[in-house]
Amino acid sequence: MSYSMNWDLESIYPNIDSVELEADLSKWEKQIPELGKAILSWNPDQDKPDYNTMKHLLDSLNKIQPEITEASMFISGTLSADVNNEKAKALMGRLSVLYSELSTTTVPFYKKFTLISDEEWQALLSLPEFEVFAFNLNEEREEAKQLLSEKEEALLSKLAVDGFQGWEQHYDTLVSKIELSVSDEDGNEHILSAGQAENRMYNHPDPKVRASLFSKWEKAWREQATLYADTLNHLAGFRLADYKIHSIDNFLEKPLKASRMQRETLDAMWQAISENKKPFTDYLFRKADLMGKDKLGWEDIEAPVTVGNSEPKSYPFNEGAAFIIDNFRKFSDKMADFAEMAFEKRWIEAEDRAGKAPGGYCAELPISKESRIFMTYSDSPGEVATLAHELGHAFHNHVIFDLPYLKQHFAMNVAETASTFAELVVSDATVKSATSDEDKIALLDTKIQNALAMFLNIHARFIFESNFYEERKKGLVSAGRLNELMEEAQKEAYQDSLASYHPSFWASKLHFYISDISFYNFPYTFGYLFSLGIYAQALESGSDFEDQYIALLQDTGSMNTEDLARKHLDVDLTTTDFWVKGINILKEDIQTFMDLTEHYVTK
Ligand SMILES: [Zn+2]
Prior knowledge:
This protein is mostly helical. The protein has helices at residues 19-40, 51-81, 86-113, 118-125, 128-131, 134-145, 150-162, 164-176, 194-203, 207-223, 225-245, 253-258, 263-274, 278-290, 317-329, 333-344, 381-400, 412-415, 417-432, 437-472, 479-493, 505-508, 522-541, 545-554, 561-569, 577-597; strands at 179-183, 189-193, 348-349, 361-365, 370-374. Helix 3 packs across helix 6 (134-145).
């Protein structure tokens, strides 16, 4: 089969200048304020609450939200495929105004749920038209209970624009000023941005280049450390003050709610990881040995391991596509057929050309009930795995599109389930199809890296952030102290297995500066291990796996994580058993890596 490497956006709108798109945008710009008015005049605080109006408002939201999402995919997709498209840039601005107005419209709606008595609310949820949304409506109502008055909330969000969000933007400005000067082989000086330097520092095959870049890197962040410390302290300070006025005293409460999970689950996951780190540190020591070192430096962890003449197989796009479809089929015909359809219908923009945005994503089109995948495909095994990852996201969308829109929203921790699962299927297959030990070592190394980031690097971030928030409650935390907290966290997470650490990591990592959500770390590890656990079960269960798996995905938007796992996997996430099962799969990979590299060991 020969597949196109360019996606089809024309089936959504003819083009970015189309009258249809303009007409839709103008329509929503009129509809949202009208919806806002209708919400304000709805009074559920009466003897006989008017539930017809409530149903009508819900229906309107369920209609307008996916419509805007569909247009938003078209506009942002056009922009990622052509970063200089001025029209798309302008429309992105118009979209963000629409989104912000939509959220100011919906907040008072959910707030009004709290005016309904508990008794009345239960009666309401037993009505067939509301029963299907019970989980989601309850969730909105519980969240709304914590809100202050409408006026106060409006004031807070106004102030947050130049306060909370202002600090986040300030961080981006600071980072854009980071420059590292490096000289190439001919002695010419080059200026690297933070992003360029980071890429090179972690991936350069020459350890000397990595080490020299790493020391410049640390220095660059340290020189401005007080500015980053101010920014981090004020972001966290704003957040803690916000928690306080909403009577939230545990800084993990919100991040856990955003992932619809319990504290016990989080603790069990970290406990399972902490108790099973030995193979991972063994791997780090082996990798150090292969590089002729006693211990790895921070900058060596992600560097590629090459022994002998490794030249992993390359996968031109059509071969990559066939490889994915074949390997999906070993687990599920539906997944394989779906992927085949996505290739045939041109849902993927994969061409390697100038003017495209970096990175990759999968975006939903809830009206067409389709997805689009954006990436720049090179022929490496890693890219095949990435493409499989994005197809996993698209498959997840595909199985929930028939549900009402309100039930389609899964939390961040389970958002990566289908994608990681699909990626595992394919990366496992690339390892198995390696034709030499050298290739197998390189492929396994890439796979173990991924796990290492989840178990050690992300663990360090979590430990740091917890300790930082604890200290921030008592007052400002100095840059020097932040360095100490970071290094301590890294030593604990990596169990002292490295020769050097990255104390300024707290300054260099964007994830600590996102105003929307804190602890943007554990959901990654959760999603990764959760899908490993599913993968472990898939390998055991065989034929009935497909239906079970799809049923699980379909419930991701309307269940708590613990209930989801209990119902579909028959496991208890609050104990370590399930987590250990997933970790054990990786232990096997590490064991294979250790066996294969045994005769390359120098001492
Ligand atoms: Zn993903």
